[in-house]
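agent> Task received from the user: take the single chain below, predict its 3D structure, and emit structure tokens. No templates, no multimer pairing.
agent> Plan: (1) validate residues, (2) run structure prediction, (3) serialize to tokens, (4) report one or two observations.
agent> Step 1 OK, no nonstandard residues flagged.
tool_call: predict_structure(input=
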Amino acid sequence: MSQFDLRCPHSCGEQQDSVWSASIKKGECREASSSAVDQKYEIYVKREPFSGSHPLIEVENISPTFQQQETETMKFALVVVVFLGAIPNLVWADEMLRLKLSMDEFGNCTMSVESTEEPLAKATEFKGDLMKSSRLPKSTIHKDQSGLVRLLHNFAEPDEFDVLFTDVLGRSQNVRLDQRFKALTLTSTKGDDALTTYAYRFKPPFTVAYDRYPLADNTVLLSVISLGTPEDALYVNLFSLDRSDDSSAKLGAFWIETKPNGQQNRTQLIDPFEFKLDEGVSKTFRLPLPNAKIETPCFLSFKGKSSQHSIQEISGLLIEGQVMPLFGIGFDERRGVIFAKQIIKGSLAEKVGIQVGDLILSINGEKPVNVQQAIALLGKTVIGETATFEIERAGKTSTISIKSE
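)
tool_result: status=success, residues=405
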């Protein structure tokens, strides 16, 4: 393949159309004619408003100074230019960086980071029956006889963003499913934080794994596992250092616990340390919790710090465990009575007709005595099962069923 230089005459931060120049070095292009080597060409490219470290380049036109015999050479150069603009990193094009976190029922965790060419489906060994979901038609779902579920999302062919992600722990910002990069991208032209929360909860024991394109320089990606609320959460911090052939990164983990008075206590679980990406790393730690089973469903959030020059791209996500959707009901309590305070638009609850103000008499046959118990009862309904509500509205009782999918 030809070697050539691609240079922008302007500052990378400028959002404007510009003339880029490409030069083919003599002797390194077998396709070029002798009159074409050592030539410099001007290519007019249009930069889109969404710009990262790897913007897609659309060739608008070519400088009209080319001679006829140079046409084939220039076509070859243009193909390589567009290829360079579309692929996040040529050196790592065949590899993904995989982070995998497993937690048992008592908060014992194993975490690993590695470079791999294997598909994400091989991150775990799971035997179960294939399931279909009208909400997740493009995801691969398996469920075993014990009720454990594995969800596999390929962001090259994703389901709807509003089905996969939610604003329950904070409004999603600077995150989108970008089909140019075939990934979930976290970036901001202003360098603001990117944030989104996965719309399915899961209970330990569970495994979370995701693949991302090799790290861009000086970016931070936080994977946050929240135990029911954002007040108690595990933070896994992956910080990139460089993107050379000898790429390295830093990995750390800490636990945040928020007291009733609002005071936060931070416990460092893994002191940040540097490692080589081609060597990978594996660590074990334990959450600073009482020695009792974790019954609270967990949330997964992604928080990224990046800029217009460094896009963070997650190509796939795997969740394995007791997985359940968010039904879209916000509970509240008054004088010992549980009622629906909020119904999220487009949620499962809205689709079956539950309304704000409905009194919740029972969930799956059990009467909730407080909001926490109502959430816990609903959290027992994993994907593929049905949640049954007995409600009272305007003095009349009725039964409503919601299929968990």
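agent> Step 4: summary for the user.
The chain has three domains: 4-86, 91-325, 329-403.
agent> Done.
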